[in-house]
Amino acid sequence: MREIFIDDAPSLIELPASLVSSTTGGHPEYDDLVVIWVTPAETNQIPSKANYIVNPERIEEGEWSASDFTYSVVGETSTITGFTNSGAGKVLGGVFPVVFPEKDDAGNIIVAIVNGAFSGAGVKEADFSQMSGLKTIGASVFANNGIEYLDLSNLTQLEVIDTSAFAGNRITELDFTTNGALRQINDSAFANNSLVTVDLTGAEKLGE
Q1: Which fold has domain 60-208?
Q2: Comparing C-alpha atoms, which of 105, 131, 117, 114 is closest to residue 79?
């Protein structure tokens, strides 16, 4: 076991010995110690010990790439399913915005993001400007992340924004003027935000 991710457990002050008892298989980039990533970091009460290190200084830095995500591939098209360890590390290290790629690491065009892929994952800012082939944003994909600004203007092939896709964020404006292919926005897709302005001028296929 190389890494353990713990989210929102401010009362946890010690890890069960059985969880990190192995003396082999630690993270090679951290002296073979098991790495414990705790979020939010400011509430962490778990100390580092001889066989594991808690919230070490980030090694994952720099620009986002296709290798920061996991995929499901069908034919020559790909669906994003989540973060790899490097991607999760960048989020925890505050490397924002998260830049989503046009193609996966094998060169397949990305057409969808699977249901729940980044729900509650700490994606505070997202950059979709490269995703020219994206057609579907699945249910609850970006729910409960604290996103304030959302730019979908480059998603000219986007057809579906599924149920609760962006629910529970802090979005104030939505502009669909360039989303001419958009035909479906499902229930509660933007529920529990702070919406003030919604422009559907360009979404001529919506509801067809």
Answers
A1: 3.80.10
A2: 114
